[in-house]
Every structure is written in C-alpha cells, then in structure tokens.
Amino acid sequence: MKKYLRLIIEILMGLLLAGALAFGYWSYNAKAHAIDELTDVSEGVDETKQELEKVTKELAEVKEKAETFEPAARELAAVKGSFENGVVLQDYEAFIKAQKGPVISERQLGLGALRLLTKGAQDPDTVAAYQKALEMAEWSSRLKSICAAQNALVAAGQKVKVLADCAEAEAPAKKHEKHAVHWAYEGEMGPENWGDEFPTCGNGKKQSPLNIVGPFEKSKDVLSVSYKEGPLKMLNNGHTIQINVEPGSTLKINKEVYNLVQFHFHRPSEEQIDGKPMAMTVHFVHKNAEGKLAVMGVLLSEGKDNEAIKTLWENVPKNEGPEVVVEGVKFNPSSLVPAALTHYSYEGSLTTPPCTEGVQFFILKTTVDISKKQVNDFPFKRNARPVQPANGRVINAS
Ligand SMILES: [Zn+2]
C-alpha cells in the first residue's frame, strides 16, 4: 500500500511540475506578446505625435498667411461697401454715355471695375465691360490694360487665354526680355491667326488696311498739317521702327484737332492702290482729346534718295529695344509729308493687334520718293498686314 502511495505522490509531483512548467511557459509567452504590443502602441504614439507637430506647424503657416491677406480683404470689403449703393456706377455710366467719340480703354476698364465692385464678377454687364476694354486696348504700351481686363475676366470665371506677358508683367525682372505682346507677320503668330488672341483682328468688319479701288465717294474732309521740329526719339519695337513725337504737332481734320503721337513704317505699303502695294508707307498716328485715332498714310515709292529717311536710317536701332533719344539730332515729321494733302479716306482699324476699330484713315494720293537702297536698309524685310475685306465700306476720295 505504501508503495502505491509513493507512486501516486510521485505522479502527482510530476504533474505539478509539468503544470508549473507549462504555466511558466505560457506566462512568459503572454508577457513577451504584451511587450510587443506595448512597443507597437508606443511607436504609434510617436508617429501620431510627429503628425500632430507637422499639422500644428502647417496651421501656424496658414495663419501667418491669412494674417497678411486680412488687411487686403478688409480694404477690398471697404472699397466694395463704398460703391455698393450703385450711385457712383450710375454717375460713371452717364459720364461715359456723354463722351463724344469712342471711349478710351482706361475709362472702359474703370467701368468694368465699378461694375465688378457694385454688381459682382458674375454679372453679365461686368463681363461685357471688361470684354470691351480688352478689345479696345491699343498698342503694345497698353499691355497693362490688356492684362487688367484679362485678369478680371478670369476672376469672373470667363474662359480667357491670358497672355503669357501678363504673368511676366508681374515678374518685373523678366519684363523687358520679350515683345510686349506676341504676334508676328509670318508663321504661327502671323496675321491669319491674330484673331486667336485678339478677337477683333479675326471678326472685325471694319479692318485695315484696304485695297483702295473705286468707285469713290467725294470726301468732304479738309486736312491741314502743322508738324513741329523736335528731338528724335526712335524705337525698334520688334514690329516696326517708330518715332515718338512730343506734344505740339497737329493734324486738323476740318475743325477737329488731332495730336501727332508717333509715326512708323511698313514694308511694303499696307494699303494697295488698285491691287498694287508701294515700296513702303509711313503711318502718322494722331489722337484727339477724346482718344479717337486718325492715321494719315504717306506712300513711299521707289525713286530718288530721301533726305529725311537718310537722317532717320542713320540713327535707326537695328535691334528691338526701348526708345532711344538721338543726341544732337532734331527732326521735323513734315519733311516726310508731300505738299498736297488730297487723299482717300475710310473707316478702319489699327493694322496691328489688337486691331481696334474706329480709326479714321487718310491715305495721301501724292507719293514720296525713297531709293531702292533705302528700302533695303529698313531693318524689317516684311511688316505689312494683308489687305482686309471692305465689307461694303465706302472709300472717299478728295
Ligand atoms: Zn501702321
């Protein structure tokens, strides 16, 4: 009996030992697992902490930016509030209506801005005002107006192709590197595609230049030119040679006074007489007090050397660049104008983008000589827009 008891005790002891070992192993495993989990959790906490730091930093940056926008937003709200009752807009609209002749682009831009502030960007009148301003902006010097109108139209949600130069205008360092506006006389940016960026060039119905061909109506306009000698300010703008004129030189159309702003050259002449272009043409560009433009064209035909052209060509800037004042040289634009001012006249447009209409053209019948060599010395081989459809326009002859 004792022998069995001992065996039983030994078995029991054995079982106990095995149980203790099993428990020990199990609890060791459990502990190890718990430590693993704890490590995972603490790693997770670290990641969350880093994420939180990043978000906090970003939030601080956004706040800083918002603080700089805040005064601008307050200013804009104040300006908007001041115009909200619409009285100023009404006054301004009445003022524009009372203007004689076409509205100048800066005033049209102002109208757009007032409508934007009073009626908002979604109002069709706002969009229309800016679209009109965009079509009116003249010459490359009006790039600022073009950009202002394009940016406003974009703000109004309109699909407008903003000129690359407008982005450049905001980066002053790059400003003078390229043409103010991209267009050319040949290739992809040539006259047949000007309408892509300048709608009036493509869809205008009173475009210049014209082929001057009868039947003519009798012109009742009497011209008188009073140009004065002044400093020679020349410019190669990448499209032509332009001479800027100081105030004081005028063209009178009947009793209306137009100031000569600048004159420039085209090779060959843009206007054709009975389907034939001349060697070159000079366009004298005038503007009256209301901003209406009048261009007087003098055709240059191949012949003798021209003394006035000689003076100009001696100082001509061969490469594109800003205006140069030629020291010690005076020039009188009348030295390029024939004595007789009999002319053909018609309603046309700028012959360069943006092709704005409402420009009166007077093409003098008397041509002025230029030698073959002088024509060849002009820095542009070809800078003439092709003739445009008359679309029923009357050409007058005096
Ligand atoms: Zn011209």
List strands and helices in order, with pairings.
Elements: H1 2-83, H2 87-98, H3 105-119, H4 124-136, H5 143-155, H6 164-170, H7 194-197, H8 199-203, E1 211-212, E2 217-218, E3 223-226, E4 230-236, E5 241-244, E6 250-253, E7 256-266, E8 272-273, E9 276-277, E10 280-287, E11 293-302, H9 307-314, E12 324-331, E13 343-349, E14 357-364, E15 368-370, H10 372-377, E16 396-397
Parallel strand pairs: 1-8, 2-16, 11-14, 11-15
Antiparallel strand pairs: 3-6, 4-5, 4-12, 5-7, 6-7, 7-10, 8-9, 10-11, 13-14, 13-16
Helix pairs in contact: 2-3, 3-4, 3-5, 4-5
Bound molecules: zinc ion.
Fill in the CATH topology of the largest domain. Carbonic Anhydrase II
Low-confidence stretches: 169-179
Mean pLDDT value: 86
Overall shape: elongated
Distance between the termini: 154 Å
Report the helical percentage.
Answer: 40-55%
> For the record, what is the CATH homologous superfamily label of the largest domain?
Alpha carbonic anhydrase
Identify every distinct bound molecule in the structure, by name, code or SMILES. Answer: zinc ion
